[in-house]
Specification:
about 90 residues, alpha+beta, 3-stranded antiparallel sheet, 3 strands, about 15% strand, rod-shaped
Length: about 90
């Protein structure tokens, strides 16, 4: 769109109409606002993803560990191979 708007601007500069460049400016404004909205939506989506990721990493699970099968609560990120998880 920017290439097309620039191409149109070149034609508008050599036009006999005095307001021919106004159409080019509206194309530039449209592209600017569309990219602003898309960038803002991506930024909000990234913040939500990081918040969900933090909640998952802070979750705890009850596992049976050790020789006698004692139960302890550990963060999910600290689970290791061989842990038996208590599912309720």
């Amino acid at each position: 769109m920017i290439f097309a708007a620039t191409f149109y601007l070149l034609f508008a500069l050599f036009s006999t109409q005095e307001t021919a460049y106004m159409e080019t400016l509206t194309i530039y404004c449209g592209v600017f606002f569309a990219s602003l909205i898309a960038g803002t939506a991506d930024w909000i989506k990234e913040r939500q993803y990081l918040k969900i990721k933090d909640e998952i990493n802070n979750a705890h699970a009850i596992v049976f560990r050790g020789q006698y099968g004692s139960t302890i609560s550990v963060p999910i990120r600290d689970l290791v191979v061989g842990d038996v998880i208590d599912i309720q």
